[in-house]
Design brief:
This protein is of the alpha+beta class. The chain has three domains: about 140 residues, Probable tRNA modification gtpase trme, domain 1 (Gyrase A, domain 2, 2-Layer Sandwich); about 80 residues, 2-Layer Sandwich (Alpha-Beta Plaits); about 70 residues, Elongation Factor Tu (Ef-tu), domain 3 (Beta Barrel). It is built from eight helices and 20 strands. A hairpin with an 8-residue loop joins strand 12 and strand 13. Helix 2 crosses helix 7. The longest helix has 12 residues. The protein starts with a strand and ends in an 11-residue tail after the last strand.
């Protein structure tokens, strides 16, 4: 069982440790609710070094990545972080990822922990005649996420004026130095709040982690709050809202699918766009008491028409909300449905997935 490079730091802070994505991970420190609130009200820091990080380098790095992912890579503005999906020939995701194009011959892909080996195998299988090298740097290039409305002020204090963070907009990045070592700062994250993702070597990330957790404005946060935060922002999680059974179009991620370019799975996704899909991702609000957990069946008139993908009662809310994948005829807001909570039926209604207004700096 692999440990995160900062594992001992988490133990010292009294984290509850769980196993996830091949690593022992902090689930929570002071509690999920407190950590969720910290990100929404001030700032929270997450050790997300369990995520996979892969460099694609070489003469054909740009066209190779372009051939794999759904979004447009070539021609994007300089220092743009690009959200995309890597799909199979049937148009179903192998993973979703963030691509950082440093130059046409050097691209960093940040992938999901649970899919990391599958992703790397897929890339190697499709190298073909492309002149590229694929290097996994998960163990040497670590990653933190500093999230929340005070994250800019906190990070600016730590890095002084080497980077003017107010100039970084959502989904852009800059390469700089911290204590003499290279540091990649991306204005991104998976919480719906403003924030940053930081990449550097062990000493750099350990130093930043220590600086953050010693700052009264920042709470260390674990996997629990990471999931409630991304759910509140209606951000998809692989194996829940996107999977080998839920396509990007069915999940409403059309913005990340550019059919004017060629990529694996394009024809299948183009067909879905043109002809429509048989199922759609929607929001659900329970009208009775209970929580709709992943995999709970959703019924209409006793017939199953879909499944819950994620559900919570969020901190500071009394509403039980969920996301669900439903057959398209039942995916209209206002449709009355029944969620089966084990053997107990709970009345619910289909709604939008705007559970909060995202706080990104555009």
């Amino acid at each position: 069982m692999a440990k995160l490079p900062l594992h001992e730091e988490h133990v010292k802070l009294g984290a509850k440790i769980v196993f996830y994505g091949g690593f022992t991970m902090p689930q929570e420190y002071k509690g999920l609710v407190a950590e969720h609130r910290a990100v929404r009200q001030s700032a929270g820091v997450f050790d997300v070094s369990h995520m996979g990080r892969v460099y694609v380098t070489g003469k054909d790095a740009l066209p190779f990545v372009e051939s794999l992912v759904t979004n447009q890579i070539q021609g994007q503005p300089q220092n743009k972080a690009i959200y995309a999906l890597m799909c199979n020939e049937q148009g179903y995701p192998i993973d979703d990822l963030i691509a950082y194009v440093f130059n046409p011959k050097k691209i960093l892909l940040v992938i999901n922990a649970i899919n990391a080996q599958v992703d790397v195998d897929w890339m190697n299988q499709h190298k073909g005649s492309f002149d590229v090298q694929i290097e996994v740097v998960t163990n040497t290039l670590l990653q933190l996420a500093l999230q929340g409305p005070l994250s800019e002020a906190v990070l600016q204090d730590k890095i002084t004026k080497k980077v003017e963070l107010s100039q970084l907009k959502f989904m852009t990045y800059q390469v700089t130095h911290y204590q003499g070592k290279e540091l990649i700062i991306s204005r991104s994250g998976y919480t719906g709040s403003d924030g940053f993702e930081l990449y550097g070597d062990f000493n750099t990330i350990q130093s930043l982690w220590t600086a953050f957790v010693n700052d009264a404005r920042v709470a260390p946060c674990g996997l629990g709050a990471r999931d409630t935060l991304r759910f509140e922002a209606a951000l998809p999680l692989y194996s829940h809202e996107i999977s080998e059974h839920i396509s990007p179009i069915e999940a409403g991620l059309n913005f990340a699918v550019k059919t004017q370019k060629n990529f694996i799975g394009k024809e299948a996704l183009l067909m879905q766009i043109q002809k429509g899909v048989k199922q759609k991702l929607v929001g659900i609000e329970l009208l009775g008491r209970g929580v709709a957990r992943a995999e709970y069946p959703v019924l209409v008139n006793g017939k199953q028409i879909g499944l819950i993908t994620t559900g919570y009662i969020l901190p500071d809310s009394t509403k039980a909300l969920a996301m669900a994948i439903l057959e398209t005829p039942f995916a209209t807001s206002g449709t009355k449905v029944t969620v089966m909570m084990r053997t107990t039926p709970i009345e619910a209604v289909v709604r939008d997935m705007i559970f909060m207004q995202k706080q990104y700096k555009r």
